[in-house]
């Protein structure tokens, strides 16, 4: 497969960028012409950021699964589409060619249909990183059902919230999942969630760990039994449903600054074009490359750069079930050598954690197949960048620092591997089609270079979110109302003397813990559920490995007598309500919280205290009771 839209020189980048700004419709029409359409579009772009209403390729009919599977069969049906590395390196790996994957997706699409799933239905997928997860996602896309993948680390309560919000009547899960030395009982978590969700009609359960599960009559069915039924029907084909360009493809929940996670909605055509285009350009994918993105498919990175982008580009994508440190901290390197991986895409937190093990785990590893390294999810510090570049890439592989968000569908700001220059800790330049700008608090544009401000984008790109599920007003409020006519990212940003962008982190009440987005309000709500808790305030602080850690200030009336037991109780509560990923790293019991006279908690002060930066607490005179600050400072942990 060749990619007519691949940019292979700095000059070509400049030219593409210019064209994408001067005549976006012509630029994207040309890119889109290398996909398979059941019917061509009537209009490339229609938009306003006020409602917002954004529509790409309106009038077109297509199916992303046809682009990810069927279109590759005539030319490279026998090429590996998916390589699966199991959690246990001693277990058998699996390789599915495009033909295999196509067959299995059609088969499972028929399973979905047999179980009553129809176009437009919402299907929640809660599974570990197994090939069947990819098959389930693609099968939903094939029949036009809207998937909502929930990361395996979320709690029953989080799943229930998501099921209710999306009114999802179908669930796909597995008995359990392996992650390192842990076995996670996924089906039992689903059972707990479904107590609150009587509207769920079917649960399809894959066998993975053989942990005992309870199956409810009429509701729960085994994946394997359902496949057998399709086999006895003679494995009929399942043609890809003709989808409108703007039909929803999936919902993915993500945290914001307010309490409840929101369901970001991406649609069929624009998302397909954007993920494929960015995959091919950012990583400079070459037809025989093996691409290894270490994210989980439960996050947007996995959706876009394990599944849709690579498969639509006809690439070979690697799915890894386990964790980077099990059985030892050399696991990534073993995988790279075993499959001769060419592109490695991971998170700064993983790099920092592996750095902590020193160079030992790298000894004896060749890593000679690597051509491109990528990072995503949070700012990468220079030390981690250099370690990655020198010790993993042996100074031969360009590092792409890719900045983007769940809402953006794919990468917006990044260097193109080996094509445009890299600069440690900088995402560098916008991709064609992306028009970033920095604004001050009042929304006034900050022009020129060597400046910093809040990062906004002023023109739509094909992969931008269209709405938040069931609540369009929330989408408007969150992203398009802070600064009129601009998409606001929530990130702070600096533009250097050469116009390179460096993302400095969130400017709202959203934390980035190990590359996972967590709202402070969400964690506070969970902490406050504990009977002994009167009130709490959560802030982030600098953490060597996680990037940010979670620091909770808690007013506690419980009387365990033992503070550590109380801390464990609270941590347990958060784990139950949200999931282990939101557990506070530090809990400090306090008598009061710093509040303004109007009762607002001054997090600015708490953030400084959590950082140990007592000298720069700023003005505390507007506080209702300035004394609480002294008390909190003394009790800092
Ligand atoms: C937030 C989005 C994009 C997939 C993974 C996270 C931060 C992301 C970078 C980067 C600095 C980054 C931002 C952004 N972020 N990539 N290369 N450099 N910060 O997706 O969960 O939607 O989080 O992650 O703060 O807003 P997400």
From TrEMBL:
Q: Per the UniProt record, which EC number(s) apply here?
A: 6.2.1.1
Question: Does the keyword section mention ATP-binding?
Answer: yes
Locate the Acetyl-coenzyme A synthetase N-terminal domain: which residues? 13-68
Family per record: Belongs to the ATP-dependent AMP-binding enzyme family.
* EC category: ligase
Organism for this UniProt entry: Chryseotalea sanaruensis
Q: Which UniProt keywords apply?
A: Acetylation, ATP-binding, Ligase, Nucleotide-binding
Domain AMP-binding enzyme C-terminal spans what residues?
522-600
Pinpoint the AMP-dependent synthetase/ligase domain residues: 70-460
Q: What is this protein called?
A: Acetate--CoA ligase
Cited InterPro entries: Ac_CoA_lig, ACAS_N, AMP-bd_C, AMP-bd_C_sf, AMP-binding_CS, AMP-dep_synth/lig_dom, ANL_N_sf
The organism that produces this protein has a lineage beginning with:
Bacteria, Pseudomonadati, Bacteroidota, Cytophagia, Cytophagales
Which biological processes are named by the entry's GO terms? acetyl-CoA biosynthetic process from acetate
